[in-house]
Write a structure and sequence with these properties.
Helix content is about 5%, strand content about 35%. It has about 270 residues and is mainly beta. A hairpin with a 6-residue loop joins β1 and β2. The longest helix has 10 residues.
């Protein structure tokens, strides 16, 4: 299908026509945060599947975020909600808002261990508040909770949040005085500053917004967007290079994930 073939999309992005298969194909543009951050969709910008006759396009701004979780009184917890204007972004019951990977720790037996000396999370979906947690009564909050944590231990994570370009969404820490801290390349918020927003707007000038197919093509040329064609040539996907996005947390900007650490040593 994709070996020398071509296709046309009409301006309202509702039909697909290929010379080798002129029938219409269902298309959709994802416009809800829960859609663009769903664990099986995260990072995907465009997918085309001839077998299922479907196209998906996810116009988003990608914002990398680092998170510090810190022991306080034997507990480590970090919960947040996403806001659009004054309203919570609804996260469907049982679903995660984002996925987080551990990048290091402090005062544990190894920087590659998490609380209770377990392996660091890898692409772990955040969770609804646990009973007794600081966000217990906030149904749209998501985060993590650990009990029986040893004194002064801390664990660090990173993620990328994909905000639909049609939405003005920001992250708000849900709990006060937990020691949690969120950092994006542009700003930082502490649990002690509860309800101060961290904007998911790592700006268009940094090239992390894709709102058109042309921008996908340009992103591939620049090495920040990857492409995948299935072995049977029936499906095509374009997706963010996650390592390129997370590189923005390496310290080139005003804030960085190293702001979270008293030492730059991370799990390698």
């Amino acid at each position: 299908m994709f070996d020398g073939d071509s296709f046309k999309l009409n301006p309202n992005f509702s039909t697909f026509v290929s010379p080798s298969n002129p029938s219409a194909i269902n298309t959709s543009a994802l416009s809800e945060f829960s859609e663009t951050n769903e664990l099986s969709q995260r990072g995907k910008l465009f997918s085309l599947n001839q077998t299922s006759s479907a196209i998906k396009f996810a116009p988003v701004t990608a914002t990398p975020v680092a998170l510090k979780t810190q022991e306080r009184n034997g507990i480590a917890e970090a919960y947040y909600t996403l806001k659009e204007a004054e309203d919570d972004v609804v996260i469907p019951s049982g679903k995660s808002a984002s996925a987080w990977t551990g990048i290091g720790s402090k005062n544990l037996s190894s920087t590659c261990h998490g609380f209770h000396d377990l392996p660091l999370y890898f692409q772990r979906g955040d969770e609804s508040p646990k009973e007794g947690s600081c966000a217990e009564y906030h149904e749209n909050a998501r985060g993590f909770y650990w009990s029986d944590v040893e004194e002064n231990q801390a664990v660090f994570f990173e993620s990328v949040l994909y905000r639909p370009v049609s939405k003005n969404i920001h992250l708000i820490t849900r709990c006060e005085n937990t020691g949690a801290q969120w950092v994006s390349p542009n700003e930082s918020i502490l649990s002690e500053e509860a309800f101060e927003p961290l904007l998911l707007d790592f700006t268009e000038t940094q090239g992390t917004t894709v709102a058109s197919l042309q921008e996908i093509v340009e992103g591939v040329k620049q090495g920040k967007i990857c492409q995948f064609v299935s072995q049977d040539n029936q499906s095509l996907e374009f997706f963010w290079d996650r390592a390129w996005l997370l590189g923005a947390l390496e310290g080139d900007f005003e804030h960085s994930r190293y702001e979270l650490l008293s030492t730059p040593n991370l799990c390698s």
